[in-house]
Amino acid sequence: MFRETQFWNDFRDQEHEFYRRQSEGIERCRRGFCWLHKLRLATDGAHCLFDTERGHRVRFAGEVFRVVLERFGVQSDGDEVSQEAFFVTLVPSHSHFVTSDEPDALPIHALRQWVSSALRNFSYVGMIEPAYFVNVGLGPFEGTRLISWHAHLLVWGCSRRELSLAIRRINRREEPLFPGAKVALSKRVEDRELGETLAYVLKSPTNQYTASPRRDPRRARPDAAAEIDPDGLRSRILTAMEPLQPTRCRIRKSEMSGLNLVRLFRVMWEVRLDHLLIAGGDGSELRKTIVDRLPRPRQRHRASRSR
After folding, report:
1. What sign results for the dihedral spanned by CA atoms 242, 245, 249, 252?
2. How many structural domains are present in the chain?
3. Does residue 75 belong to any structural domain of this protein?
4. Does some domain include residue 230?
5. 303 is a domain residue
6. C-alpha–C-alpha distance, residues 40 and 228, integer Å
7. Is the residue at 298 inside a domain?
């Protein structure tokens, strides 16, 4: 059984550590009477995203592991998959999918539709995830905190060439979030790596990010003047150096601080995991099976902000 595998044990330990750190952050905020002291820490059965006590994401992930691994004929560490699969990440940059850390609405439904359009005729299952940028030092987002909503997917039922063509088409059509980045990335899931790949797709968002420009070395302006040396044998360019627009972006990640864990909790507290679970093609049946096995969620406290 997959519950006896190393990748499942590592995933479970990582999630429990995440819940512990988040609980400590929430408790510190409560004791400090900060702006979160009125936050309702609601839970919602196995669908709750950030449950700090019972590890609902672990139970949710258990259902996903069971259904997907059975689909690929994997029962234990070392088993080879019955079908070629790929790990795909999609990071759209449209304003719908980049929000502040205090958004009026979450773009979950819109991102699900975007992924469905981008991977039409492909079979996939995966999760929508927020990437929390705590400091952005370039572009229209400079000096802000923002959340980039993206998707991690397991894709199958296609050849490597077919998927590569689709990935190139997406990257040609869509502008990246930051200079030099890619909207779509893909990687073949090697034999015996399916469990680790699923663990990455299903993990809680535990990292925070910063983005800063990576500029080219200084170069001459087009209108620079030329001066002939006294010996007349060589010339050099006299330049008045000026800042250049960044051509690439440097993204750094680190473990999310306790306060930022609570900030992200504030954004996501009413989101259910089945809303973040997305699928297409043959994966739609897997998603239906997973959702049907989950406990029925309790009544909502207020209308969802998903858009």
Report:
1. positive
2. 1
3. yes
4. no
5. no
6. 74
7. no
Residue 12, both tokens: 């479970």
Give the whole-angstrom CA distance, residue 105 versus residue 111. 13
d(CA 307, CA 109): 5
Pick from 194, 242, 193, 247: nearest CA to 221 = 242
Q: Is the pTM of this model over 0.85?
A: no
Boundaries of domain holding 73: 2-215+241-293
pLDDT per residue as tens digits for the range 141-193: 666 788 999 999 999 999 999 999 999 999 999 988 888 889 999 999 987 88
Q: How far apart are CA 171 and CA 194, in angstroms?
A: 26
Q: Position of tokens 């000096």?
A: 143
Please give the structure tokens belonging to residue 158: 């296609």
Residue 276: what residue type? Answer: L
Q: Can you tell me whether residue 248 is helix, strand or coil?
A: strand
Which residues, other chains included, contact 211 with Cβ-Cβ below 8 Å and sequence gap of 6+? Answer: 133, 135, 136, 137, 138, 141, 178, 249, 250, 251
Half-sphere exposure of 80 (CA within 13 A, CB side): 4
Closest CA to 19 of 49, 63, 62, 60: 49
Q: Which residue has the tokens 């996501």?
A: 268
DSSP one-letter code for 46 = B
In whole angstroms, what is the distance from residue 126 CA to residue 25 CA?
A: 28
Beta bridge partners of residue 236, listed in sequence order: 227
The amino acid present at 100, given as its one-letter code, is S
Distance from C-alpha of 66 to C-alpha of 48, rounded to nearest angstrom:
19
Pair 112, 278: CB distance under 8 Å: yes
- pLDDT tens column, 80-111: 777 899 999 999 988 788 888 888 888 999 99
In sequence order, the 6+-apart residues with CB closer than 8 A to the CB of 128 are 108, 111, 112, 149, 150, 151, 276, 278
Q: Coil, helix or strand for 244? A: coil
